[in-house]
Amino acid sequence: MGKGSQFLLLLWKNLTLLKRTPVRTFFQISMPLLFITILVLLRALVVKDEHRPNITYTAFDINQLPPLNEDYPTKWKMAFTPNTTNVKRVMAMVANQLSLEVEGFQSEETMVKALVSEEQNGDKHSNVMFLGGIVFNKTLDSRDVIYKIRLSSSSKKKKKNPYVFELPGPRGGNSTHGGPPDYFGEGFLSLQHAVDFAIIKFKGNIEDLNATVSVKRFPYPDYIHDPFILVIQGSLPLLLMLSLVFTALNIVRDIVYEKEKKLKESMKMMGLSGWLHWLAWFTKYFIFLLITMGLATIFFTVKYNDNGQCP
C-alpha cells in the first residue's frame, strides 16, 4: 500500500473515531467559538467614547527642585565625585542654585556605597538626606566634560492608583510635567539644568549667566478613548487559553489512548511510517482548528454596530 493510501486510511480512521463521539466532537468545535462569541459581545456592548482632542501642555520652570514627598526631609544633600577643587567649585554653584548641600567622595564606588547604605538603613525623617550623586568622568579642564547623574531606583513620590496595563491616551495626561518615570518630579531635570549651567559658568569664567530655560511636554494628537482596550487587556489571554484547553486535552487523550492500546505499534508492524502517523494526527486537528478559526474570523469581521469604528 502506498503512502498516500496509508494517509487516507489514517484520516478515515480518525473520522470514524469522531463519529463515535459526537458530543465530544461538538464541544471541540463549539467551545472556542463560545469564548470568541464572548469577545464579540464585549465589543458590541462596550461603547467607546468620542474622539479626544489633541493635548498641548504649558511650559514650566526647572530652575529649582520640585517639592517632593512630605515624608522626606526638608533639605536635600547631593553627593559628587571626584572630590577635586574644580569639581567642588562647580558643585558649589549647583548647591547655591538648588538650595541643597553637597558632599564630595574620592571615588564613585565609595559614593555609591554611602548612597545605598543611607537608602537602606537611613532615617527618612532626618532633616537632610541624599537625593543622589553626580559622577564626573573627565576633569573639568578637558574640552568635553562628561558626567552622569545617579538617582535612586525607587520613586520619591507617592504613587496613586498604579496601573498594570497602559491606558489609552498620554501617560499622565493631566500632568504638565509628564508621567512616569517623572524626570521633573524626581529632580533629574533640575539637577541636569543646574550642573550644565555651573559647567558653563566655570568654563567661561562667568559670574552670572543671564539665561532662562523652560521645558514642556510634547503635544499628544487626538485619539479615541476606547474602554474595550482596557477590558480586552485583562480578559483576552484567559479567554484564549480557555477556548483551546479542551482541544489540547483531547489531543493528549487521543494520543495516550492509542499508545495504551498498542494501536500505533500494531500499525507500525504492518508497515506504517512514524512520520505518516503523526501527519495524520496533525491534519485532523489542523482541520478542527481551521474550521474554528475560520468562523472566528467571520465573527470578528462582521460589523454589528458602530463600536470600534473610527468616525
UniProtKB/TrEMBL annotation:
Localization in the cell: Membrane
Membrane topology reported for the UniProt record: Multi-pass membrane protein
Cellular component per GO, a single term: membrane
Keywords recorded for this protein, A-Z: ATP-binding, Membrane, Nucleotide-binding, Transmembrane, Transmembrane helix
InterPro entries, per the entry: ABC2_TM, ABCA
Residue intervals of the ABC-2 type transporter transmembrane domain: 26-299
Molecular function (Gene Ontology), one example: lipid transporter activity
Pfam family, one: ABC2_membrane_3
Ranges annotated as spanning the membrane: 25-46, 228-252, 278-302
Superkingdom to which the source organism belongs: Eukaryota
Protein name as it appears in the record: ATP-binding cassette sub- A member 3
Taxon lineage: Eukaryota, Metazoa, Cnidaria, Anthozoa, Hexacorallia
